[in-house]
Design goal:
Layout (H helix, E strand, L loop, with lengths): L6 H14 L11 H40 L4 H11 L5 H10 L1 H11 L1
């Protein structure tokens, strides 16, 4: 009895991954083994960078808050310490947005905690 191989499923799997690697450079887009390795590595980078994205944004917010706080005569650490001491519950994302787009509201918060 001849051996049975599921060519339909294996070909479909290859086609699916080659479709995902469309647009890559050189052999990375059309050579099965290279494309599969590249695609798997890309998933690893995507997982890692979802974490790094949060880290990068937090650093950006801190820089923006620091710049705005220094215009008000305080450093970032002094401002955050004063906010916590005063019991003002506001996160860095919102604080950075106020510092960039609504300077009057940011000034009011700084005046409250001074």
């Amino acid at each position: 009895m001849p051996r049975s191989v599921n060519h339909v499923a294996s070909r479909a799997k290859r086609k699916r991954i080659l479709k995902l690697t469309r647009g890559y450079f050189g052999a990375r887009k059309n050579v099965w083994t290279v494309a599969k390795n590249t695609w798997e590595k890309g998933l690893t980078y995507a997982y890692r960078d979802r974490k790094n994205k949060k880290r990068s944004f937090r650093a950006l917010w801190i820089q923006r808050i620091n710049a705005a706080a220094r215009m008000e005569g305080m450093s970032y650490s002094q401002l955050m310490g004063a906010l916590h001491k005063a019991g003002v519950e506001i996160n860095r994302k919102v604080l950075a947005d106020l510092a960039m787009n609504h300077m009057e509201a940011f000034k009011a918060i700084v005046a409250k905690v001074k």
